[in-house]
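#structure-requests
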Amino acid sequence: MERTQSIFVDYSISQDSLIHQYKYATKGFAVKLNEKQAEILRKDSRIKYVVNDFSYKATQELTPTYTTMTTQKSASTVPWGVARVYGPLDGTGKRAWVLDTGIQLDHPELNVDTGNSASFVADETATDIRGHGTSVAGVIAAKDNSSDVVGVAANAFVVAVKVCEQSGRCYVSDLKGGVDYVAGSFSSGDVANISLSYPVNDDTNPNIDISLSILEDAIITAADAGLMFTLAAGNQGIHAENRSPGRVVNNNVWTISSMDENDEFHIHFSNYGNPPINYANPGVDIFTTAIDNGTTTVSGTSFAAPHVAGILLATGDEPVIGGYVSNDPSDDPDPIAVVPALKVSISGQTYIDSGEEGTWTAHPEYGTGSYSYQWAYRSSTSDPWTLAGTDSDTFSWTFHNNSTVIENNYIKVDVSSGSENASSELTVTVAPSECEPNEIMC
């Protein structure tokens, strides 16, 4: 900021001309300049680039069908896309940053983090007027309640980072401002979704590729710092390397193409090419939240990307491959991202004294519904398991050892969630009853 102030003073640039100050993912600023001022700044050794800003209707081009009536029912509708990736999962307490047209801040189906929501569009608040960002947010995290629709990481917080005008036009400087803001605000485990797409070549703006490359550098810097990004591949039916920021390649960035309910690549609009595309996900006829407290059905890579955002958010892990799309225009079909399989681990004592009660806890992950538990124990590997008859994530039992040497006993937990099952075993060493506490032999 001090360097910016120094530059402004040196060239008599008004403070009112400053649009954005970039501090975290990149260093620099966006400012309104005349041609003479821009030419002077280009010669300043403190400045690496001076490029024209660029705006584009980067939001979803396809027209959604809106339904604004909320219907009360016994449970939320699970859209086919959420089910295809093996959701919904519990995203409670997790946080996704939606860099888009904003979000309806008081939508009853969304947990919007209004305190962190922000607008980088002049004279507009973070609330969504166009609807695109609200629909993206619903795919990620719509509540699992008794109405409307549920998201992949149900009940997670969503943060509105408005970077696009209500018309759908998005300035590169505003998106870069949003990226910089999230880079300075995110916590470990957060995910940022950008369902926007810019052309990398434009005859009317020969500097657009430089401007977009600087934006992409900011995304990469934030990703290297630990922020996970999901990006829409774009809807032009071309190779994804020709769109930004979807062409970004980084270990913490996932670019997503679109498929339909039959796992068929959506050749009518989805961009292709692996890389930069990492996965395909549902992007056709996606049921999600809409402005005015309603729901909508939408299509596009804009709504494929947030499915993967939900997976990353709820699990903290990269998705696993749940098949491959058919009819991919490229020679390397995109893998389909799904939630990792249900798994469980056990924590608790691995050494106890004879007659001492032990307590153990099951830690399931990646379930597609509520968890149910069945514990069992046995005294040797040749014995059958004895069911303990509990349905809790914790289990207590007292093992006895009447010999003069240590013995191994065993506990097991079987967990089910939705249609999945998983199990885990733990060996528990039991000291002889004649031993002093914690002695191995006596």
